[in-house]
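Co-fold these.
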Amino acid sequence: MSDIDLDQRPANNRSAVLKSRLTSWDSIILVLTVLVLIIASFTVDNFGTSRNFTFMVLDLLPIILIALPMTMIIVTGEIDLSVASTLGLTSSMMGWLWNQGLSIESIIPLCIVIGAICGVVNGFLITGLGLPSLAVTIGTLALYRGLAFVVLGDGAVADFPWNYTGWVTGTIGDGAVPNVLILIVVLALIFGIVQHATPFGRSLYAIGANAQAAHFSGIRVARTKFWLYVASGAVAGLVGVLWTLRYSSARADNGAGLELAVVAAVLLGGVSIFGGKGSLPGVLGGVVLLTALQNALRLEDVSGQALNIVTGSLLVLSVLLPNVTSAVRGNWHRRKLRQASATSAQ
Amino acid sequence: MLRSPRTLLSVTSAALLVAGLTACGGTTKDSASNTSGGGQSAAAADPNAAVKEGLKIAFLPKQLNNPYSDVETGGGKVAVEELKGEYKLVGPNDASASSQVSYINTLIQQQQDVIVVAANDPNAVCPSLNQARAAKIKVITFDSDASKDCRDAFINQATTEGIGQSLAKMALEQAGGEGEIAVLSATPNATNQNSWIEVMKEELKKPEYSKLKLVKVAYGNDDDQKSFQEAQGLLQSYPNLKAIVAPTTVGIAAAARYISSSSYKGKVAVTGLGLPNQMREYVKDDTVKKFALWNPADIGYLAAFAGANMASGKITGAQGEKFTAGKLGEYTIGADGEIVLGPPTEFTKENIDQFNF
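Predicted complex below.
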């Protein structure tokens, strides 16, 4: 149905320029990520070890998983800021259900469903009632976190079974590959294929570029967005489970502030906050780049405050640079056009 | 593609079905065996081993830039210098449950010999601490303990008995051996204060306290204004009062402020638990002769020595083992690997200027 190929649009020239700029930003991030990894392995003591690799994968696990649906949502020009609170609510619910005597095998799917329901509420308010996603998800950010505290209060539930908590922090056959990496790879592949190789995925870009045009060309804009929020909630629920098991501690304040880390990584990966642009490989690169940089700096005993300054500057640069280069390029292009018209007039 | 609310309904019910099916049989709270892995096999202690030099001892407080924990880790730094070790201080900017874990992981990677940590969450740090112990790093907790099975020893700043006895002793001294005394506490249900007051009352039954009479326990709710008024009220009701004992830093400061500006100055003593910086002016103007609190610098100092002794194989954290902690003297490890700092430090006009917290 809605197989829109952006390159076939009338504004052929401009979109080609746009596309080349985008792919170049993606590749800049990916190259930068590889560079940071290589340089850190050689210059930072204890960086390139298998144990540090495990630690890094565990640190980026929540960010990378939530970033998968978040990328799609931001590509459509919307945002979901309630993800970390959904995580906190599922973590609380997990502790509460565990205290009620339910088995962990039934709690885990239930928690994912709870996350999905949080997403349904967001999706309904945004697509059903047509409210702005920024306002709605700031509201549910507070709401879900509040509910999390209602469920569990200030307490914590910690006695989850060792075979589950151990699995999350463990590695395959006690080797170098963390168990959770399988989860990351499988989910990244699914989301990557959906986003980049299906009509559904292509329609996201059309929605982000111009929702009305997308609507008139037959894309079910509201329904598409609705399901993105459900997916976002479900993934946040899954991450709530993983977070709880990793720290073997179900708490209402789990993951507080994580939504900003996710949005930051997605933007660093070259996704435009205005929608319509961005790719998943770029985002994956962005997450790895941020995590690796923080890990390396921490190993070098850089203080927490300095760490914030570095990552903050990197983010500002990541938003600034593509805009500056496009402005410079546009200027140069216009000047060339002017020169061309001047010479032809003579 | 996805159609209609019915799809949603079916997805949800499918998920619920999965949940329902798995609900029968599975790991529940009651059936879960919670033998957490990690940790180390307990090696035998060698009391004759020398304390090694060059040990890497890292401090990880609840968060950085907190004045109280700065004093604690400052004491640790002094101890590490005495031990000729390498001191390191790291920590998150926020005191959230999980933010310490990345720092513990970094310390494992850096192969520290000892990690001295104040746990933000007794359980969230556990898997990481056990990884550290598996990597032959000794883990000492201070301030707030982690679960017993993921640390080697805990530095306990004070026992309930120690505080209660110290309060009774100071009251006896300050009242001049006899007369009426009153307690100005925090809230009526403050757990710590109540247990200290209980111990104090037990002490007062002993013969040497027979001439001391506790006439009233007042509550200032740890509010400066209320504590000030309660102190006023105590002296109106009991004009013969010899001493006010306030086992709370807010209460003792408010009582001292009232007495120092009233005609009771020099007649009624104020003592209890207080912070030197808050009490300095009242000690200097002789309103307060003596008060007490554990010395936070000693907590860090003792933690560093305990860690160094453990990393050198002198102790393992088992009950009854003894070690020497520099200027603080000899310590014996108690049940569950607890090391009690000892009786609180007493502050007087002579020594108060040595303390800044």
